[in-house]
């Protein structure tokens, strides 16, 4: 194994492994170091996303949704039965199979693209050197013209609710329950908290989500967030806003928790407690201080518009540099950096980032909310398409939710699209493409959408902006 590379990536998650693959495709001799170990001590590329986040959570969300539909929706289709059962062990095994197939696929992609995959820890030494400590074997010093830090992020821990891995767990632990808790508590009503709450609530856990902020999903358009909260409540999720957790204690048999709402102290007892209050940059063992790598006050690696750090030849991408902590944002940064190193003029459009909550109904958004657009000084016009008027949604027994379009009243340009409803994660791509190409409402209005499809509801929402909706009551524009 050579110890000299053109590009050496430290971190093999959604930022690092695509960066390494694209760099190799562009002719750079490339290696990727990744330290991830699963709970059985097996190494795996793919980072949190493939091993303990995006992919395993979606597997469980899909399984739990099927169970919920079996219990509450099949009757409407004329389908009935009485012998349906939950097998959590089989559900978990399926989840693991899916994750392992994808993480194993990264090794195959590395081989196909001639990327050297290194399983172990990478430590910056300065002057283009990285100390590589394999999980098994001796340390080795590697050299590279370009070093890329892509070490991702970790769940935030709370001193008032210390993780013990048994009754008080982080998001990874919450994906590995071997049985459904009777009473489940979750600290944090963000994307992770709501998704995990949805999984276990559907499977039968009485679930309470405590959120310190007064507003539910503040990053989402207020109208859409309110509708999402209403739908979750109908499903049994007990979301309590303005609830500041004071302390949580594992008694061995349960978790006793105290919190405060409007100055009044309250208490709850749960079988399991999930701490889902966000993520923080992972620079452990990187030797950032030792080599003088500049970090900001929150611990994120400082970079310029081209992902350069303050150290010559050292770049950083993904969660470790902050911004939206999303796998697809990290992927795009990795690809963009590789192409920039090759002299291409590639950049990431941070104004058109898709965001999704994979519950049922799903919540998805891109661009500005109505509140954000007004705060930035835009004169806005808005339109909405309720799924209650959508034929495909009705046929699916999923006619809940709405698509909202926010546009510039002066230019007709679409500023943002926020939605809650069936499979809006898939509908969002059209909205992102619209933002990428600076589409106007007229552009989408003149684009034919298939019928009956869920996508035509986006078309309907755009028509609604100018009072032209066909399948919803609005002010007719002549």
From TrEMBL:
Its main location: cytoplasm. Its EC number is 1.8.1.4. Gene3D superfamilies: 3.30.390.30, FAD/NAD(P)-binding domain (3.50.50.60). Its cofactor is FAD. Belongs to the class-I pyridine nucleotide-disulfide oxidoreductase family. The active site is a redox-active disulfide bond. This is Dihydrolipoyl dehydrogenase.
């Amino acid at each position: 194994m050579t110890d000299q590379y053109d590009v050496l990536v430290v971190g093999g998650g959604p930022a690092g492994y695509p960066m390494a693959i694209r760099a190799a495709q562009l002719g750079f001799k490339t290696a990727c170091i990744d330290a991830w170990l699963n709970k059985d001590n097996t190494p795996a590329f793919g980072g949190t996303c493939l091993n303990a986040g995006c992919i395993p959570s979606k597997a469980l969300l899909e399984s739990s949704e099927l169970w919920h539909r079996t219990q509450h929706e099949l009757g409407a289709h004329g389908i009935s039965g009485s012998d349906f059962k939950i097998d959590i062990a089989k559900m978990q095994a399926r989840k693991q199979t899916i994750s392992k197939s994808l993480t194993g696929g990264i090794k195959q992609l590395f081989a196909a693209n001639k990327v050297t995959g290194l399983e172990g820890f990478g430590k910056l030494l300065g002057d283009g050197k990285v100390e590589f400590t394999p999980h098994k074997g001796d340390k080795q010093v590697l050299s590279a013209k370009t070093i890329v830090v892509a070490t991702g992020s970790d769940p935030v821990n709370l001193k008032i609710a210390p993780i013990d891995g048994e009754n008080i767990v982080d998001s990874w632990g919450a994906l590995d329950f071997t049985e459904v808790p009777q009473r489940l508590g979750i600290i944090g009503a963000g994307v992770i908290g709501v998704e995990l709450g949805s999984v276990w609530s559907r499977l039968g856990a009485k679930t309470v989500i405590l959120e310190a902020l007064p507003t539910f999903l503040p990053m989402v358009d207020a109208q859409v967030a309110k509708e999402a909260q209403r739908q979750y409540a109908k499903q049994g999720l007990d979301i309590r806003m303005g609830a500041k957790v004071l302390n949580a204690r594992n008694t061995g048999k349960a978790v006793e928790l105290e919190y405060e709402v409007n100055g009044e102290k309250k208490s709850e007892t749960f079988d399991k407690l999930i701490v889902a209050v966000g993520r923080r940059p992972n620079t452990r063992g990187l030797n950032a201080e030792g080599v003088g790598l500049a970090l900001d006050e929150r611990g994120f690696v400082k970079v310029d518009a081209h992902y350069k750090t303050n150290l010559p030849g050292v770049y950083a991408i993904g969660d470790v540099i902050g911004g939206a902590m999303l796998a697809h944002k990290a992927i795009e940064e990795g690809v963009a950096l590789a192409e920039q190193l090759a002299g291409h003029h590639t950049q990431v459009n941070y104004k058109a980032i898709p965001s999704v909550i994979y519950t049922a109904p799903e919540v998805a958004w891109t661009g500005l909310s109505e509140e954000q657009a007004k705060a930035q000084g835009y004169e806005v016009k808005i339109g909405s398409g309720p799924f209650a008027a959508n034929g495909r949604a009705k046929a699916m027994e999923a006619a809940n939710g709405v698509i909202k379009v926010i546009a510039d009243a002066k230019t007709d340009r679409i500023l943002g699209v926020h939605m809650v409803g069936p499979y809006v994660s898939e509908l969002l791509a059209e909205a992102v493409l619209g933002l990428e190409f600076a589409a106007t409402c007229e552009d989408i209005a003149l684009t034919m959408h298939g019928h009956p499809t869920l996508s035509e509801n986006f078309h309907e929402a755009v028509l609604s902006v100018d009072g032209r909706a066909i399948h919803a009551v609005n002010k007719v524009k002549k």
